[in-house]
Structures are given as C-alpha cells and as structure tokens.
Design a protein that fits this description.
A seven-stranded mixed sheet has the order 1-2-3-4-5-7-6, sandwiched between helices. The protein has about 170 residues and is α+β, with helices and mostly antiparallel strands. A hairpin with a 7-residue loop joins strand 2 and strand 3. It has a domain of about 100 residues: Gcn5-related N-acetyltransferase (GNAT) (Aminopeptidase, 3-Layer(aba) Sandwich). About 30% of the residues are buried. The two termini are about 20 Å apart. The chain contains four helices and seven strands, in the order βααβββαβαββ. Bound molecules: coenzyme A. Coenzyme A (COA) binds next to strand 4, helix 3 and helix 4.
C-alpha cells in the first residue's frame, strides 16, 4: 500500500481502536524524524542528511506512524529497511508511545515490504544492553544468530551487537 495511509489491524477490523495510522515516509518528514532520533537514540542518532539519504535511496523502505486516520498528525514512530535480494535488513525502528502496538505494526509493515520485494529473511542488529528491544524482537519471532563484538562505540565504551534473524516465508 505504498502511497496510502494504512490503519493497523486486520482486514475485517482495520485498527478502529487506535488513534493513529501508518504511511510511507516522504522527504518532507525528515526533520520531524531527526528530532525523534535525538530522543530515541541519543547516543547514535542520524542527522537530517543521513536520514534524507536513507529515505531517498531506491533500496530502502521507510514507514511512519502518526496520529490521525491519515497519519498526518504528530509523529509516533518510524522504521526503515534496506532491501538486498534474499535479505532485508532492519535499519531502524523506534516509537514515542511505548507498549501501544506501534512497534509491532511498523515491523509488520517492513516485513511485508521485504516479502513483496522477494526477501526470504529479515536481519537486524541490536545493542546487547537494549533489553526492551531484544524482548520486542523475540516476541516478533526473531532469534539470535550472531554477535558482533564491540560493534557499537558509545562514549568511548564498546558494546556488542546481537544479530537477529527471522524467516519471512
Ligand atoms: C523497541 C520498541 C521499538 C518497541 O516498540 P513498542 O511500540 O513499544 O512495542 P509494541 O507495543 O508493539 O510491543 C510488541 C510486543 O513486544 C514485546 N515487548 C515490547 N516491549 C517489551 C518490554 N519492555 N518487555 C518485554 N516485552 C516487550 C511484547 O511482547 C509486546 O507485545 P504485547 O504488548 O502484546 O505484550 C520501542 O520500545 C522503542 O522505540 N525503543 C527505543 C528505540 C529502540 O531501542 N529501537 C530498537 C533499536 S534496535
């Protein structure tokens, strides 16, 4: 449904219990996402130039959640993937309203985009000390397949990345 707002939920009941919806990110969203990056990833936030390059790249797919049935209100979350043949890589995901199902909806959108593009697997990296995200991914069916030692350097400290994977078929 690229180009259209999309309410989360089933086909029979398209998210009528929520006050938000999903829609594909456009370049006009880049500044608001950059502000959210600073809140969600204070140690490793992308700037507007990095985000713009991501959003406009032909092999990326970005989605956001925002208030309102057309997702034209306040930004509540966003996510993006890189497509690479059989693989897709989750580049980012974050929500400003935790525990409301927004992360699940964003991840589901990304998985659907990856599937439609022919990817059979989704990969992601998560900081070892991000227990909330690890629980979120595990609940979504991802399992740890690798560890990248010292992958993140946060204020001079090295933190491992866990690589997680889920089959999309
Ligand atoms: C990780 C993150 C994206 C999850 O988004 P969210 O909108 O809060 O997650 P949802 O409400 O969709 O939760 C979906 C499921 O994940 C699991 N989950 C979410 N948060 C959890 C927690 N703190 N502990 C255990 N399980 C959790 C639950 O199974 C949940 O389902 P349930 O509510 O039916 O129990 C969000 O916490 C976030 O933005 N964190 C900061 C940025 C970040 O770390 N991003 C990931 C970088 S790798």
């Amino acid at each position: 449904m690229v180009g259209d707002a999309q309410t989360p939920g089933t086909a029979e009941s398209p998210g009528t219990d929520t006050d938000w919806a999903l829609r594909p990110v456009t370049i006009e969203d880049v500044e608001e996402i950059a502000f959210a990056e600073l809140e969600l990833f204070p140690d490793e936030s992308w700037n507007v130039f990095q985000l713009a390059a991501e959003i406009e790249h032909p092999d990326r797919r970005y989605v956001l959640a925002a208030q309102g049935p057309q997702a034209d209100g306040a930004l509540l979350g966003y996510a993006g993937i890189m497509l690479a043949g059989d693989l897709a890589d989750l580049h980012t995901i974050g929500t400003r309203r935790e525990g409301a199902g927004i992360g699940r909806a964003l991840l589901g959108w990304c998985e659907e985009q990856a599937r439609s593009a022919g990817a059979g697997r989704m990969l992601l990296e998560v900081r070892e000390d991000n227990s909330r995200a690890r629980a979120f991914y595990a609940a979504a069916g991802y399992r740890e397949i690798d560890r990248r030692r010292g992958y993140y350097r946060i204020r001079g400290r090295r933190i491992d990345a866990l690589v997680m994977e889920r089959a999309l078929s």
